[in-house]
Amino acid sequence: VLDSQYGLYVWPCAVVLAQYLWAHRRSLPGKRVLEIGAGVSLPGVVAARCGARVILSDSEELPQCLQSCRGSCLLNRLPHVPVLGLTWGRVAPELLSLAPIDVILGSDVFFDPKDFEDILTTIYFLLEKNPHAQFWTTYQVRSADWSVEALLCKWNLRSIHVPLHSFGADTEHLAGSSMPGRHTIEMMIISLAQSEGT
């Protein structure tokens, strides 16, 4: 997919997250996985092909992204993977009625700082509802001034940095992109911070 709009391009972060899923493929069968901001859905498709029960989602306000999710499923012979319109920061009936989940995926969702709080509001809601779940996310370092650390503290979330070399994603060609510039990708796993005494 060569369209460089938000949800219509395979961004380098999606390739790195897909590599993480492939490296952990033996743990995926039967896992309940939700991909947020899925767009072309590479991570979600890989998880589904590895045996996870996947739901793909993107903004209900971006029908072309939802269609892209459906198209990726059809191209990969996954016609029964549900696609939901979920808008970050909005507690809609679709979000409230989600079945239990084990893993939330998000590749390059931390793209625009104005969305960071809405993303983490949604993630916090999902983790509160599924306390043992984790949010696996990759992001591109675009500015030293952009950080989610303060918001993680605000929402009582903790993060663990996952070195790319630990799952074979540190090779130069892996996250290659035809787009100009250097692409520094990072990965973290976000979960609920443990309360004192637990």
TrEMBL record:
A Gene Ontology cellular-component term: cytoplasm
Domain of life, source organism: Eukaryota
BP GO terms, sorted: methylation
GO molecular function terms listed in the Swiss-Prot or TrEMBL record: methyltransferase activity
Keyword Flavoprotein assigned: no
Family annotation (SUPFAM superfamilies): S-adenosyl-L-methionine-dependent methyltransferases
Key words of the record: Methyltransferase, S-adenosyl-L-methionine, Transferase
Pfam families: Methyltransf_16
Family from the record: Belongs to the methyltransferase superfamily. METTL23 family.
Protein name: MET23 protein
Species in which this protein is naturally found: Phainopepla nitens
Upper classification of the organism: Eukaryota, Metazoa, Chordata, Craniata, Vertebrata
